[in-house]
Amino acid sequence: MLPLALLDLTLLRLSAPTPVQAASCALKGSPWASARRMHQASLATPPPPPHLAYNYKNGPAIAEKESPISLGLAGLGSLGPRPGQIISDARSELERRVKALEEAASTEMSALDPPSYTEEELMFIYEDLLALPPVSEVENKLSPTELAQQQAEEDTSVIKAAEQRLLAPDPGEEISSPTHHRLLAHINAVVTRVEAVRKASMTSADAESPAFQNSLPVTVLSTAEFESLLRVCIRDSNISAAEMTLTLMKRSGFVIPQNIVTNTMELYARAGNVTAIEKTLATYLTDFPNEYQRYLHIKSHLVSTPADVIPASTLDVLHSYETQGHPAPIQAYTSVITSLFSCKSSLARAQAWDLFSHMRYVAHPDPDVPLYTLMIRACASPLGTRPSEPEKALDLWTEMTVDRRLPPTAGAYDAIILACARSGSTMYVNEAFRLAKQMLDAHRDARGESAFRPSRRTFCALLEGAKRVGDLARARWILAQMIAEQRTTDDTGNPEGVNEEVMMHVFHAYASYRPPLNRSAVRSATHPSSSLGQVAGQSVDAPTPTVSHEPTHPSGIEAYDRTPTFTQVPPQSGAEVIHETQILFDRILHDTGLKKFSDIPDSGATFLDEKFKDVEMTPRLLNSYLSVYYRHSSLETARTLYQTLFEEYGIPRTARTCVEALERCAIARRGHERTIAPTFADEVWTQWQSLEETGRDGERLLSGRIIERAHIAMIRILSLTNNVARAVQHLRAFAAKYPPSDLRNAPPKPALRSTRTALVGERPLVRMTSAAEVPDDHVPPLIMFDDVEILHHRLVAQNSVKEISYLSYICKAYECALRARRDAALKMKPETMRTHPPEARISSPSE
Ligand SMILES: *[C@@H]1O[C@H](CO)[C@@H](O)[C@H](O)[C@H]1NC(C)=O
Ligand SMILES: *[C@@H]1O[C@H](CO)[C@@H](O)[C@H](O)[C@H]1NC(C)=O
Ligand SMILES: *[C@@H]1O[C@H](CO)[C@@H](O)[C@H](O)[C@H]1NC(C)=O
After folding, report:
1. Which residue of 22, 157, 327, 822 has the fewest C-beta atoms within 10 A of its own C-beta?
2. Strand pairing class (696-697; 700-701)
3. Where are the domains of the chain?
4. What mean pLDDT is reported for the chain?
5. pLDDT for 212 beyond 60
6. What range does the record give for the signal peptide (predicted)?
């Protein structure tokens, strides 16, 4: 959205006197961009030293092949240019930075809805990972289902036999509880009796000695029978029964086999029962926990931590194993890093990257493919509105596939494709398509069958790229491919067809597409003598409507084109864009049965085979559909759709719905549009206000950024439509509701972000992200001068001295408060470490 606003900002930047100023304008200018979240990006602060600025956008490079110690401990300094270079490079560096930011800002326009890491996506990786047999030494973990089945049957018969022997149940007797519970109760009674007898005949000192317990085993059950019993309890997921079995076994004087202890730990880890697992470690282990047991210990902590909380206790345990010289296996690190990323906070994210580097330094220099995939995937989804980090992702990709020759999986391909596609830069989007081609072409077997098939995830990743660069031709081609695909499920039966996410991306691609300026101008280009040569020359810059980028003759396009209105050539005007999206939307309504169409003949449905039947109506789908209208139709038409669309399908409007409508009004063109804009905006505002009052947007809290976007758009609309007095009133109300003083208090810094250098510690030794680089997710809403520049212009024109000074004062106040917040965050000491060392909780079994 906001192309005009962005144009203004771009002009502003170009005319800015120095690169330094330009940099700060660009930072603030890219609307609702990272500026507000970045500590180092406060206006009029001395710019960070060039070596700090250097990697602001890309993040620190990962250069593992150099000594990780010097890299990590020397901190960021080592990542920038050498001191001698700094002065001469400073200018060009800043210019580069400004340019990068401008690019980021302009891609944001097309990135209407860059979804961050969704829970679903994360779980995909996470579950895949946990499903891997963590460590091969545990055979049970690897045995196929049949073996497990066989084992279960064996166990049952063993227990039946033991019951016959011990309890000798009357065949006619009513059996009230399952066999193994009665067996347990019986053994408990026997062992207790025997113990009582022994205790009576000994001194208490004797009874405590291990010699006593080992000397006379109470042979009620054999070890094998106990093992069967335990497996049955574990299969039941009955923690108390499993624990009771172990206790009885110990009390009977048996040495407990380690694989049985491990099996019990698996049960506890799944249940996230930290107490039980730590008790087991302390009581039943004879050696230091092996790799898999350490993994289970860490997993229990992870499972017991709520999803959106930083797993602090897990990190403690992880680091404690390191200090004891037995780091947890790599799978444990991958799980912890995954859960840090799923916290969706910038802090946790920074911690995840630090933990990755740290792991390579202290424990596992060579990540495995799932971990590489996870890190590459993370490059695709920096939180909030920052673009992805394709360079970093490609570094990791090269390291994995070239340096270490690890064969990539389909998931790894999807991750790197997404990281490149989400960058929004044409170069990397092309790289994403190249990688997709490589994925399908480079791994063919002898019969030429590709090892990989593009999944919906692959297609969605590519669509993310196409929509960001306004490449409608490719987006249409991908949709055609998906429609042509006969398979509607993947190998494991999950649906793979067109869904709501696909259609959201497709609508975004229509929204960000710029049709050639004028069709007749394009035609006239074929006449060299045309007097319209000038115009024709311009049209060369417009996207050339070619379909073929990768495969030259996609088979799918025909299927797609059988709908009469779809041609191979993308729409040539705004009206054609609207027409085409309307057809797609109607198709969705038709296939999902939401609406009957008299003009879509039933035979038409068989063409496409109801390919759109899985598209669910969601707020974000409707928002994306509406965004096409904002871009390509008149404000009136868009308004009508805004008014009717959501009610028609019973879908609630979200904060985004309101903000995008307001932002569309804020770029109303002179003339007719500006007469509609204020009334439309007022309607939207009423709906927005009720959202703002609840402070929630569906499940999530409203972010400070979206709140300020709404207000800034409203102030702009009022200023543009000569409601200057109301605009000032609005600004005052905003400042009263979100006073600058709210900004001053930065959230406390957790102990795990301590920057004190330590060689032995409960936290990463290698810190890749400095305090200044961790974005602040919790900056309250604020308004900066650029946001209200139009209002300022109008006030100057009216010569309203009092209002002008108020406006300057309030913007300055926000700016100072933001700077104070940043300074405080940088200086802030982390909270003190927890006092008890975690070692105390991992009781070493040798004690
Ligand atoms: C778990 O095992 C105990 C002891 O055998 C038994 O009393 C209890 O009912 C079991 N719980 C469940 C949920 O099966
Ligand atoms: C964890 O296991 C213990 C037995 O060791 C049990 O008493 C406790 O209730 C369990 N806690 C949870 C949260 O399940
Ligand atoms: C395209 O440009 C030509 C010449 O500039 C003009 O006559 C014609 O009306 C334009 N067509 C549209 C659809 O704007």
Report:
1. 157
2. antiparallel
3. 21-101, 478-517+529-645, 653-721
4. 75
5. no
6. 1-22
